[in-house]
Amino acid sequence: MRPIALNAFDMACVGHIQHGMWTHPRDTSADYNQLQHWLDLARLLERGLFDGLFLADVLGIYDVLDGSADAAIRHAVQVPLLDPMLIVPAMAAVTANLGFGVTANLSYEQPYPFARRMSTLDHLTQGRIGWNIVTGYLDSAARAMGLDAQLKHDDRYDMADEYMTVVHKLWEESWDDDAVRRDRLSVFTDPAKVRAIHHHGRQYRIDAPHLCEPSPQRTPVLYQAGASPRGLAFAAQHAECVFMNGGPPALVGQGIARLRGLATARPVKAFVGATLVLGRSDAEAAEKLAEYRAHSSVEGALAHAAASLGLDFNRFGPDEPITAESNAIQSNVTAMARAMGGTLTRRGLVDQFILGSRQKPIVGSAQTVAETLIAYAAESGADGFNLSRTVFPECLEDVVELLVPALQERGAYKTAYAPGTYREKLFGPGARYSTSSSSPKGLPGTA
Questions:
Q1: Could you give the CA distance from residue 175 to residue 213 in angstroms, rounded to a whole number?
Q2: 332-354: b or e for each residue (b if 16 or more CB lie within 10 Å)?
Q3: Mean pLDDT, residues 132-139 taken together
Q4: pLDDT of the residue at 232
Q5: Are the beta carbons of 278 and 398 closer than 8 angstroms?
Q6: What string of DSSP letters covers 88-136?
Q7: Percentage of the chain with pLDDT > 90?
């Protein structure tokens, strides 16, 4: 049996996925702006042998519902929001093995300073950094960056392909492995082993060496979550770990198989989004679900879903089919329509909001949930799960104290961390990122 990998799926904010949980009296997510909050989280996850803490991020406010940000602001729907990169070094200082996946939107980041930022994090974490590659989906973010609107969906991915070409050159080709000598009697770095990167493309022009010496991983572990046809092609070209929306395991398995069939240059690990409500018995878990559900926010969930799908649901009647096109996350529109039998309606969407999100929780004792996850992974071919928080921190404490031992008893979870970098822990000793297909063949305007 393949061991199941676990990531904690979080965000440097109060309300991430399950909206309204911050109102629960035991929830401490409002302490998101206190460093101790993140240090305690990192220590907890490492105690539970989590593979990583994955930190989502956005650059805009959710203002699609009613054409206003009021609902998102009122219910703390991913606002206020801190920069996730700035909390990673502190968490790395109190852990030794936990990986850190951070989201960065390449649409608004020049590749040259971004490559340095990621190399810096890889150095400071001793090779435990990953990057979730996103191209954005919010027009509010585009306006915040001085634009009228974001690029069209597929155009964002075309730009991203060139971006990846540039950062790979900086990370992998500018400095030789043995460029840095640290010879106090002679030279710190051999200039013959450092070279400028020359890229003259449609979007970017660079003639400069990378500013950082080679970090432990050089290229961070690369994550991606594209599920549209263009997103899948991008993920197959570049990603090592891919996040999948939950759903029937057979259907998710088809998406995983399709992705792996496209990704021939390297192995790809698939993580499926999941929300867990655990108890010491099935009955206790059901009681906890009812308790949590009393705090869920329908308006907050609608604000989030409206932005993610790029659709203002309040423009439609409760049972009116929602058929408008979206320039946001296209795969979300398809997935939600499929979950409702092919027709997306506001009433059907609200019916999905069990804990203030579209993600249906898995509820039960540790034994029940362990068997459910094992069966899901076996049928779908998933490597692990991204666990979004409900009431924090008890939701993750339950995973560490109840679920992890149940998985270990079944031989489905590691009992110790493997040595090495984040990539080596995921893919084995000596693993390095393969750039053999990182530059799309025939990409116009590259040199």
A1: 7
A2: bbbbbbebbeeebbbebbeeebb
A3: 90
A4: 87
A5: yes
A6: HHHHHHT-SS-EEEEEEEGGGS-HHHHHHHHHHHHHHTTS-EEEEEE--
A7: 76
Residue 327 CA to residue 157 CA, distance in Å, equals 13
Q: Encode pLDDT of 46-75 as tens digits.
A: 999 999 999 999 999 999 999 999 999 999
Instruction: Answer yes or no: is pLDDT of 404 > 60.
Output: yes
Strands (E), 300-418: 362-365, 384-388
Flag whether pLDDT at 253 surpasses 80. Answer: yes
Composition of the chain by helix, strand, coil, percent to 5 = 40, 15, 45
Nearest to 59 by CA among 81, 75, 38, 76: 81
* DSSP symbol at 31: G
Place of tokens 């974001």: 150
Q: Are 425 and 418 in contact (CB under 8 A)?
A: yes
pLDDT at 329 over 50: no
Tokens of 117: 């930022």
Domain boundaries, the chain: 5-317+355-427
Query: CATH second-level architecture of 5-317+355-427?
Result: Alpha-Beta Barrel (3.20)
Decide: 51 and 425 in contact? Cβ < 8 Å: yes
CA separation for the pair 8, 16 (Å, rounded): 12
Separation of alpha carbons 119 and 206, rounded Å: 18
Q: Provide the 8-state DSSP code for 32.
A: T
What's the DSSP call for residue 380?
A: H
Give 268-307 pLDDT, tens digit per residue: 999 999 999 999 999 999 999 999 999 999 999 999 989 9
43 burial level (CB within 10 Å; 0-12, 13-18, 19+): middle
How confident is the model at residue 318, as a pLDDT? 83
What is the pLDDT, as a whole number, of residue 149?
84
Assign 297 to helix, strand or coil.
coil
This prediction has a pTM of 0.91
- DSSP letter, residue 412: -
Q: For 73-125, write each residue's pLDDT tens digit.
A: 999 999 999 999 999 999 999 999 999 999 999 999 999 999 999 999 999 99
Give the phi and the psi of residue 387 in degrees, each rounded to 5.
Answer: -95, 110
